[in-house]
Design goal:
Layout: H1 2-12, H2 19-28, H3 35-45, H4 50-61, H5 70-91
Length: 95
């Protein structure tokens, strides 16, 4: 999980998310550096729009309740499915 936090710090500060930068953050914080996890994280984030993934994660937590109209439920289900797919990519890294 600490590798993901390091990637988010890099993203927020406008730095490139690569193995060396993630290692620098983790080692500076005194955390254990696991090269395999870092390599997998960097590879999985390649080509991912992190801002969009974060927006989807936020929208997933703010889903409409069942008391809304069916039309809203369908769009909510579609958003939930997209958010689950985005989360599955990251969670598979740490099996």
């Amino acid at each position: 999980m600490q590798e993901i936090y390091a990637a988010l710090i890099l993203h927020e500060s406008g730095q490139q998310i690569n193995e060396d930068n993630v290692k620098k953050i983790l080692s500076t914080a005194g955390a254990n550096v696991d090269d395999a996890k870092i390599k997998a994280l960097v590879a999985s984030l390649s080509g991912v729009n992190i801002d969009e993934a974060l927006k989807e994660a936020v929208s997933f937590t703010a889903q409409p309740t069942a008391s809304h109209e069916k039309k809203e439920e369908k769009s909510g289900e579609e958003e939930a499915k997209k958010a689950e797919e985005a989360a599955a990519g990251l969670s598979s890294l740490f099996g």
